[in-house]
Amino acid sequence: MATLKALVVDDASFVRDLVKRTVRQRFPVIDTTDAQNGRRAQSLMSRTTFDLILCDWEMPEMSGLELLQWMRQQPQYEKTPFIMITSRGDKDHVVEAVKGGVSEYLGKPFSPEGLSNKIIKVMGRRLKDAMDRGGKSMAGPAEAFRESASLLTQKREAASPAPVRASKSSTSSASGSTARPPMSVASVRFSDSTLRSVVKDITLTEVRVIAKRDQQFPGILDQAVVDIEVAEGQVARLNGYVHQLQAVDKRQDTDFVGVTIRFVDEDPKKLEDLSRFIARFRSGG
Fold first, then answer.
1. I want to staple 9 with a disulfide (CB 3.0 to 4.6 A). Which of 41, 95, 146, 267 is the partner?
2. DSSP 110-163
3. Residue boundaries of the structural domains of the chain
4. Residue 216: CB atoms within 10 Å
C-alpha cells in the first residue's frame, strides 16, 4: 500500500507516463499524481501535500524553475525533494536550478536506473523505511545515498553535447544523392549515447534523420532529445521517442540507417521554433 505521494510535472504525456511507470515499478510505496504544467501543479500542491516533486523545466504557463521558486517559499514545501528532469543540461541552467533550491537534476533522455537512483538519493531513509514496512526491497546501488550534492555542477558541460549548426556549404546526403543546401545536422541524444545525423525530413510531429551505421543505435520507443539549431545561436531541444528504424538502402550491408523520432512536446514556444525551422528547411535556406 502506497504511503508516500509524488507529483510528476511535464507538458508531454509520454514523459509523464514513463516517469510514473518507473516509480510504480521500482517504488510501489509511492503513489503518483501528474500535472501538465507548473500552474496545474501549483494548484494540486495547494490542495494536497506531496512528498516528492519530479518536474520538467520548459512548460507552458509556468516553468519548472518558477514552480520550484514558488514551492520553496511555502512552509510545507521548504524541504520537500524536488528533482528537475529536463533536456537543459548546460552548466548555467544547472546552477540556476541549484540557486532555486533544486534537490537533484536529471537530464533527458533518462534511464529507469538513473531516475531510480535520484529518487533514492533525495528520499533517503524515509523511502527505505517505507519500503521496509511494505515488505519491498530497495532497488538501486548503495552509493546513490552517498553521492554529494556538489556533483550537480561538475562535468555537466561534458554530459551535454554542443549545439549543432547547419552546414553553409553544399554536400551529399547519407544515401549518396545531392542534398539541398544547406544541410541540417542534428544531434539525437539517448539515455546512454548520442547519434550524429542529418535531417532528411521534418514536420511538427516527427523528424527523420539519416545516420551512419557505425554508431550506437537506440531501440524502438526509446526516449530521445533532438537538438536542432532553429536560428543563429538558438538551439531547440525537442523531446520524443524512436518510432521507426529503417535501412536507407535495400542492401543488407547498407552504411546508413534512417531513424524516425516522434515529438512529444506540447510547449507552444517549442512548436513555434520548430515551425520556423521547418519553413527554412523546406525553402533550402
1. 41
2. --HHHHHHHHHHHHHHHHHHHHHHTT-PPPS-THHHH--GGGGGSSHHHHSPPP
3. 4-159, 185-283
4. 9
Question: Domain 4-159: which CATH class?
Answer: alpha beta
Residue 102, SS3 per DSSP: coil
Q: What is the pLDDT of residues 119-171, one digit of tens each?
A: 999 999 999 999 998 887 765 444 444 433 333 334 333 344 444 444 333 33
Region for 252 from its dihedrals, namely left if φ exceeds 0, alpha if ψ lies in -120 to 50, beta otherwise: alpha
Grid-cell match 544541410, residue found = 183
Q: Which residue's entry shows cell 526491497?
A: 137
Give the pairing type, strands 185-189 and 104-107: unpaired
> Checking DSSP bridges between strand 4-9 and strand 52-55, what pairing results, if any?
parallel
**Fold held by 185-283:** Thrombin, subunit H (2.40.10)
- From the list 73, 53, 74, the residue with the least C-alpha distance to 64 is 53
In total, the chain counts a number of residues equal to 285
Q: Single out the residue of 270, 52, 27, 283 nearest to residue 138, CA to CA.
A: 27
**Residues 132-144, buried b or exposed e (16+ Cβ, 10 A)?**
eeeeeebebeeeb
